[in-house]
Amino acid sequence: MQVYAAMIDSLDQNIGRLLRWLEENGYGQNTLILFMSDNGASAQNAENGTGEIGSASMWASLLEDWANVANTPLRYYKTDSYEGGIRSPMIAFWPGHIPANSFSNYESHLIDIFPTLLDLAQAPYPETHKNKPVGPLSGNSLLPVLTGEDIQSREDPLYFQWKKGGAVIEDGWKIVRSQNGGAWELYNLNQDPTEMENQAENEPQRLQAMIHQWEAWLTASTGENPANL
C-alpha cells in the first residue's frame, strides 16, 4: 500500500503541473480533462519480476485483502462484472462549461468517450479507414451530462462479458453472473448499489428478459454461442 500511496501522490503532483501549464499558456478555459480510475482493484496474485515492489522491474497487485478494502463497499474485484469489478469514478474538469461541485449518477462507459470527443470537436465519424469500412460507432456523447442537463439514465443498455461471466445494466436494473459461471443474479442498482439483495426470485420475468438480451448481444457482437461459455 505504500507504493500505491506514492503513486497517488506522484499523480497528484503531476496533474497539478499539467493544469498550471494549461493555465499559463492560455488553454485552461478550453481544455476538457477527463480523469478516471481503472476498473476494480485486482485480487489476483500477479507478482511478476525480480526487483523490489515499486521498481520498474517488478509488477505486483494488491492481493485479495487490500483489494477488498480498495473496492469497499462494492462487491468482488477486477475481472468480475459485479460493481466492484466495473464501477469506476470519473472526474470531468472544464471551467466555464461544467458546473462547479456538480455530481451525476449517469451510467456511462468507456465507449462513451469517443462520441463525446467527436461531439466536442464537431467532427464526423469516419465511414472508412485505409479503404476499409469502419464499424458503427458505439456509445453516447456525454456532453449533455457534463454541461448539466438533467439526464438520469442512458437510452441503451450496457453489456459486459468476461470468461463465463457477464452483466447487463438497463434502467437501474442489472443482471450479473460470476466469471466462473453459475446462476444469473438480479439487482435494483437504484435501491441496492452494493448488490446485497438478489431479486431473481422476485422478478423472474425481468430476469429472463435480460438474460435473453445478453445472449442476443453476445452472439451479435462476438459470434459466440452463449451455451459454449
Structural description of this entry:
With 229 residues, the protein is an alpha+beta fold. It folds into 3 domains: 1-103, no CATH class; 108-152, no CATH class; 155-229, 2-Layer Sandwich (Arylsulfatase, C-terminal domain). 30% of the residues lie in helices and 16% in strands. It is built from 6 helices and 10 strands. The strands form 4 sheets. Strands 7-8-9-10 form a 4-stranded antiparallel sheet, covered by helices on one side. The chain has a two-stranded antiparallel sheet with strand order 1-4. It has a two-stranded antiparallel sheet with strand order 2-3. A hairpin with a 2-residue loop joins strand 8 (165-170) and strand 9. The longest helix is centred in the N-terminal third of the chain and has 23 residues, at 2-24. The protein is globular. 18% of the residues are buried.
What's the structural blueprint in terms of helices and strands?
Blueprint: H1 2-24, E1 33-36, E2 48-49, E3 58-59, H2 63-71, H3 83-86, E4 90-93, H4 113-121, E5 128-129, E6 132-133, H5 143-146, E7 158-162, E8 165-170, E9 173-177, E10 185-188, H6 204-222
Antiparallel strand pairs: 1-4, 2-3, 5-6, 7-8, 8-9, 9-10
Roughly what fraction of the amino acids lie in strands? Answer: 15-25%
Q: Indicate the low-confidence ranges by residue numbers.
A: none
- The averaged pLDDT comes out at 92
- Number of structural domains: 3
Rg, rounded, reads 20 Å
For the record, give the distance between the C-alpha atoms at the N and C termini, rounded to a whole number: 36 Å
Q: Count every helix, treating DSSP H or I runs of 4 or more residues as helices.
A: 6
**Quaternary organisation of the protein chains:** single chain
Order of helices and strands: HEEEHHEHEEHEEEEH
